[in-house]
């Protein structure tokens, strides 16, 4: 199976004032030095300011791939260091956006993570990037990265290997669900969950209903 590595482990540097409903944001993530403990709600020392839309066990860790960061660095004409996207893990050699929903990663010697859902860009992210129409651009490009839940806790650090240990048969990737959802995608994910192959966030079932109604099914 595909393998990769952790380039940086990032956690909140400081809370920043923000125009959103919470008034602050924890999007300012920066690389940590040395090992960082990982628990069920994410990295030790990290925080989510708006827990209505971020965090919880199903979105405990956010991973973004260096290849996607390199694309945006070229498109925007500036360096994009680890943490700039609000990610906890900047990874190389493994594509977060193209990860199959429900696949599992072994990170380092003991941490196991499970891919759950795509990152949905918001106004806070746009303010962080200071790029006009950023939400629209990020959405249209579809290089969204992946949220993960923590299956096994432990410690991780920059340089740790990442190994894909399980890939569900349904084959629906984070990117396809985000950019090209259709009735076939819904059927595949529902079937995989019914078979016990994956465990979907509750939000998926709400979105399934909305999508199918829009498609007239």
UniProtKB/TrEMBL annotation:
Annotated PANTHER family: PROTEIN YIIM
MOSC domain residues: 30-165
Organism: Pseudarthrobacter phenanthrenivorans
Database matches in InterPro entries: Benzoxazolinone_Detox_Enz, MoCF_Sase_C, Pyrv_Knase-like_insert_dom_sf
Residue ranges of coiled coil: none
Name the record gives this protein: Molybdenum cofactor sulfurase
Superkingdom of origin: Bacteria
One Pfam entry name: MOSC
A single GO molecular function term of this UniProt record: molybdenum ion binding
């Amino acid at each position: 199976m595909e393998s990769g590595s952790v380039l940086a482990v990032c956690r909140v540097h400081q809370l920043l004032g923000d125009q959103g409903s919470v008034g602050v944001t924890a999007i300012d993530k920066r690389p940590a030095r040395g090992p960082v403990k990982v628990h069920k709600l994410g990295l030790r020392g990290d925080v989510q300011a708006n827990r209505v839309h971020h965090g919880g066990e199903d979105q405990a860790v956010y991973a973004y791939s260096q290849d996607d960061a390199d694309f945006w660095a070229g498109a925007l004409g500036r360096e994009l260091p680890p943490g700039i996207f609000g990610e906890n893990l900047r990874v190389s050699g493994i594509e977060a956006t193209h990860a199959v929903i429900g696949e599992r990663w072994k990170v380092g010697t003991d941490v196991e993570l499970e891919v759950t859902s795509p990152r949905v860009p918001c106004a806070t992210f746009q303010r962080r990037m200071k790029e006009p129409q950023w939400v629209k651009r990020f959405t249209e490009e579809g290089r969204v990265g992946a949220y993960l839940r923590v299956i096994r806790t432990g410690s991780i650090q920059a340089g740790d290997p990442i190994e894909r240990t399980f890939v569900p048969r349904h084959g629906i990737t984070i990117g396809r669900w985000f950019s090209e959802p259709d009735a076939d995608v819904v059927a595949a994910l529902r079937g995989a969950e019914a078979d016990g192959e994956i465990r979907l966030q509750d939000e998926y079932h709400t979105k399934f209903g909305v999508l199918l109604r829009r498609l007239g099914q």
